[in-house]
Each structure stands twice: as structure tokens, then as C-alpha cells.
Target: phosphoserine phosphatase
Amino acid sequence: MRIIAFDFDGTLSDSEMTVLLGRKNGTADEMADITERAMNDEMSYAESLRSRARLLEGLEAELAEEAYGEVELRPGAADLIRRLRDDGHHVAIFTGGFERGVERALEKEGVEVDDIVSNRLPVKGGRLTGDVEGSLIEGTKDTALETHAAEHDVSMDRTVAVGDGANDLPMLEVAGLSVGFVPKDAVRPACDAVVASMDRLGKLFESHGMLDADE
Model:
């Protein structure tokens, strides 16, 4: 068994969750700008996430749920997850994004993962509070990956990390195999391999003996 840790926004999904949420209250452009700066390592991820959450203060929970329902997996992502799990691998999603959006996207494709480590936007009185909660605000993905490896008695050289942005760098730097999915310039040097589609990622996993060749 290997542990495969995927980032979500920009990797398993080409939906940017905070932008979808921002469209519900007219802050999408500001969301996109903050997100881009964070992914290029121009500001800390924690700072960017709290800034984006504040922009959502007062958004009706029903509208937030609509936005979560618009989150989608990339073409081929659900099939790749199924193949990995069918072959006995532990598949986790580590994302600074929001659990509800990840869950909705997986439900839409009828696919499951073993673990989701993510953040949440709390609701009070039927509206978002403008705060954010979760282990991946200040916490980093290397810690999450190392914790998962220890819990499942898997050595770090049998871990795989797949991501694209600066907040993925910690797990990419400690994983046994680090894969950039159309990575940002600041991320590319930390990657053992770079791919631009789920099909190519599947082929890469086949070449490393993690999957049988897809017939």
C-alpha cells in the first residue's frame, strides 16, 4: 500500500472554491487575486485564507451550499481515485479549501476517498461568520502526510503527494514521490515529475508500478 495525498483546488478540481463562493456576493475578482498571490507564494496561505473568509462574511448559508454544489472534479479524476483504491492504496485529500465543497464534488461522481483533511467556514444564524476553522490554516500538509503515514505504518518513501500551489510545497518536499499538476513556477523545482492531465498522472503511476496498465 502507498498513501497518495492529493491537493484539491487546482489539482483534483479545476474549480476554485473561494471564487465560486465569491460569485454569490460579488467578491469573486478579489478572491481570485488573493488566491493567485497565495499560490505564487507572494503571501502566506493562512493570511490569504483568512482574507478570503472575511470577504464572505454575511453570505447566506443556502447560497454557500449552492456554490459548493458547483465544485467539480477534473475529467478522469474520479476514475483515477477508484483505480488507486481498487489496487489497495490509501487515498487522501489535503486541502486548505472547504470540506463541504470536496464532499459535494465526490458525491456528484459517486466516488469516495479514505480521508479528507480540510477547513470549514462556520455558520451562525444562517450566514457565514467570516471566520475559517480547520487544521490546514496554520498547519501544513507535510505534517498531515507524516501523521497519515505513521498512523497507517507506511514509510515516507511509500508516500505520494500531488499538488500545484505554494501551500503544497511542504508535502511535496517530504513525499517519496512528488508530482506537480501544472504547478506554479515556485513549486516546480520541488517536483519529481510534472503532469497536465489525470490521464498522464495515471500513466505516471503505472510507470512507478502503483497501478496496472489501464486496458
